TrEMBL record:
Stored InterPro entries: RraA/RraA-like (IPR005493), RraA/RraA-like_sf (IPR036704)
Positions bound to substrate: 93-96, 115
Protein name: Putative 4-hydroxy-4-methyl-2-oxoglutarate aldolase
Organism per entry: Streptomyces cinnamoneus
Keywords noted in UniProt: Magnesium, Metal-binding
Biological role stated in the UniProt entry: Catalyzes the aldol cleavage of 4-hydroxy-4-methyl-2-oxoglutarate (HMG) into 2 molecules of pyruvate. Also contains a secondary oxaloacetate (OAA) decarboxylase activity due to the common pyruvate enolate transition state formed following C-C bond cleavage in the retro-aldol and decarboxylation reactions.
Amino acid sequence: MARIDVDLAVKTFSEHGTAAVSDAMDLLGLNGGLERLTRMSGEGTKAGPAYTLGFETVSPGVPAPAAEFIDDVPPGSVVVIANRGRTHCTVWGDILTAVAVRSGLAGTVIDGCCRDLDDIRALGYSVWSLGAYMKSGKNRVRLVTRQEPVEIGDTVVHPGDLVCADGAGAIAVPAAHVTEVTGNVLRVAGMEAAVRVDVAAGTPLREARRLHGYNQMSLRPRKAT
């Protein structure tokens, strides 16, 4: 995937948001939705390459120090943490957030919980998770994979897949399909913009959709190869 494809995709996804990205993926028969994750902090649409991390539980009494990874995450990345939906302990907090802000990361997506939420919000950093809880992950879970594929619900996220997230949640676009999805996002956004213009001018929504092929576009999904 050429660098220009990534830059264009990040810009396009950030401008048009997860709904347009989801519709664009539907046209290819792709899912990518990271279900049940909710925006906890930050604002606006964020997009960037996934930096993936996987955690596992440890037995009581087994030492498991805080995970060391944040200094290695490239600027512009979205940190994707697979904590297997665990809500009894956290894998992200205010200190990680401070470093993420300093390093220019786009945001963090967690299949689990964050803590220090008030401080994270004060820093203006974007986090999506299942919720917030105060219990530390230290000596409860440990980092076992870095930059390997991870499962978030029913979606597998690979390192370098592009993640887009906003107030509606988060979605991951496979790296192999970024160029095609980007083109579809522009098609979807252009069609919807035309519908909005006609509706604002008084055209019935049904007619505006017909004129601009709204339903015809959505009825033409195909299986991605």
